[in-house]
Write a structure and sequence with these properties.
Radius of gyration: 11 Å
CATH superfamily: F0F1 ATP synthase delta/epsilon subunit, N-terminal
Number of helices: 0
Number of strands: 6
Helix content: under 10%
Strand content: over 45%
CATH architecture: Sandwich
CATH topology: ATP Synthase, domain 1
Order of helices and strands: EEEEEE
Distance between the termini: 23 Å
CATH class: Mainly Beta
Strand order of the largest sheet: 1-2-4-5-6
Structural class: mainly beta
Length: 78
């Protein structure tokens, strides 16, 4: 699935990932390929990604919103 992490200043990440874990306001949650459509608010914490080459990436955020739709994940964060 394609994932983008965007801040007001720049694009932190853009690429294909196997999995992603987000710090949701109702608790941490994971997203895999073919996940059901959803929108969630995020709190301060770490977004953890595993890309197609099994490399792990971590991004610290202060909060934001994530949208999952048709294997496209967009994160708007601070």
């Amino acid at each position: 699935m394609k994932l983008e992490i965007i801040t007001p200043d720049k694009k932190l990440y853009s690429g294909n990932v196997k999995s992603a874990t987000f710090p949701g306001s109702e608790g941490s949650f994971g997203v895999l390929n073919n996940h059901a459509p959803m929108i969630s608010t995020l709190i301060a914490g770490t977004i953890e990604l595993t890309d197609d080459s099994n490399t792990k990436h971590n991004f610290e955020i202060k909060g934001g919103v994530v949208e999952v739709l048709k294997n496209n994940v967009i994160v708007l964060s601070e």
